[in-house]
Amino acid sequence: MADRNSRLSARKKENKVENKSNEEKDKDKEKGKRPEKPVKKPEKTPEQPKTEKEKPSGANGGAAGAEANSNGENGEFQPIELPPFEIVTGELMTPFYFKFQFRNVEYSSGRNKTLLCYRVDTPGGTTEPLKGYMEDEHATAHAEEAFFQQVLPNASQECEVTWYVSSSPCVSCANKLANILQQRKKLRLLIYCSRLFEWEEPEIVEGLRALVRAGCKLRMMKPSDFLLIWEMYVDKEEETFTPWEDCQENYLYYNEKLADILK
What we know:
Layout: H1 2-33, E1 66-70, E2 77-81, E3 88-90, H2 95-101, E4 115-121, E5 130-135, H3 143-151, E6 159-165, H4 171-183, E7 187-193, H5 202-213, E8 217-220, H6 223-233, H7 247-262
Parallel strand pairs: 6-7, 7-8
Antiparallel strand pairs: 1-2, 3-5, 4-5, 4-6
Helix pairs in contact: 4-5
């Protein structure tokens, strides 16, 4: 009887172990059916901005370059030749442009170009004077030199040229203008300057002196000269011009400096 009871007890234990083992298997199966946690995708590294070297030719103000042009028929991209930068020319400038570029301040911050208003008169006034303005931003030649390349290329023409420039010529332009005046004996050149460019530099001083020795008349612009530019070279419509408060004072300052240079 004792043996029978012990066998029954052993069977119950085996059944419990087996049931427990089955329950654990079922739990494992359920675990296997659960969806896995989503794997976090690596974040995309932001693209670095293109450097100047990566830009296509012509994207940073080069003289010539190519751009991609979409062909509507086959979707191909064809390169386009960009024209070289040239001297900007015209007859009238905007009022804001004039007031900013020609203002005769001592420190010309942000004014990194030369504006040149010109008038060409022929002997006897038989023809209408030639008038216009030029600027030399991004140009291969400064406005002073470009004038004789584009506006007055005829070296034998007899004429009187008057310039109103935002700044006096640099060393290179002063020397080139002096050479032109020596070669063109029938040319008369009068230059009115709003500001003096780097007038304290010895090479600038010598360049301006050489220009005057070659026959050029060099003057600083008075308030009345700014008004003349306003009337002749500015697209003013009905707007009126009043010289800025320190216009006369700055003229006297620059006029004294120019007199010291040329004495």
